[in-house]
Amino acid sequence: MHVLYFHQYFNTPRGGGGLRSYEFARCLLARGHKVTMVCVVDETDPLESLGSPGAPVRKGVIDGIEVIQFNLPYSSFQSLPRRAWTFLRYAARGVGLALTMDYDLIFATSTPLTAGIPGIFARWIRGKPFVFEVRDLWPELPKAMKVVTNPLVLMGMSALEWVSYHSANACIGLSPGIGKGIARRSRPGQPIVVIPNAADLELFQPGRREDLQLPGIGPKECVAIFTGAHGVANGLDAVLDAAAALKRRGRTDIALALIGDGKRKSGLVKRAQSEGLTNCHFFDYMPKMQLIHLVNCADVGLMILANVPAFYYGTSPNKFFDYLSAGLPVLNNYPGWLADLIEEHHCGIAIPPGNAEAFADALCKLADQPEWRRELGRDARQLAEAKFARSRLANQFADWLEAAYEGRAQAGLQPFV
Fold this sequence. Notes:
The chain is α/β, with parallel strands linked by helices. The chain has 2 domains: 2-198 and 389-414, Glycogen Phosphorylase B (Rossmann fold); 209-387, Rossmann fold (3-Layer(aba) Sandwich). It is built from 15 helices and 15 strands. α1 (20-30) packs across α15, α2 (80-100) packs parallel to α3 (117-126) and α7 packs across α13.
């Protein structure tokens, strides 16, 4: 089977983003399939082996995956209209490939929602099987966050969502809430499976705190680490609120390390400086292989998001599974399926949103009880191994694509077990 795979933000281990598509494509290759990945230029992973970065279209093979990269630079710092224009251009060029290339099945993963447009054309014009993966519910999520408020735009996004789900032979959701959201908007009996993000058990492994070297952080401080985007959705002011509470208590033995970039980062840095929050340490975005060592050697993983109800059961953040794999207890600040997992499997602390004192209490408890902290970390690693191993979920993904291609994907919502 030849899979034409659309992922606008494709990353490899050489970059700094999530590796879901890379690892899932590699699993398909291992099972004898062919994969052609279609993506755009990503400043965090330029895919240098594809040749001249200035070419309109670059082609090559990366670790067995055939890659087609459109020269459509994208950044989260761009304005919403400019990003939307990139989304539409990527979809339009993708339609051209979907209508002309020789392949057996088309797979598209959001975000953005427009990534599914080539699959819609392929299904109805060429009769190609189409599997659509949903990473965030659109327009529900941007509407809830008030990122998109124009009623006409929201109406158009809602229509595209409906058409995408009804055109797909089968769908994949990355969380229980996403799976249910797809089911609400799909045709009766639509085959849907929940396959969350996964734990890279070979890359992220429990390390030694004494091997952690970060400027400004002492060897005896308990280090709580956050990795990822510093945007509106991440709600990182909650970390600074907790830092202020720790400062008032005189807890200088707890360090908060925030690694990454985003639109809100400069404002967060300025706030920390103005309030004298010397327990907050900001570090630049870094390649995955460099980040792995820091996560492995930290004490606590911070799973932070803005208090938006759509997030509760509708997200599957990579960092959560990285923390589990590294054997870090997870401190989570919003309710939902991840908080439920943490409480059920005794692998961290779930606190209510918007409560800086509870946040500080949890950090103090983790810092003051190292043996208990390590026990939570062991349970986190066990959960990663039992339920979220990359190899397990990648093979489930490959099974689902094969079933969709052969017309035997099971009808209805298949919950993640």
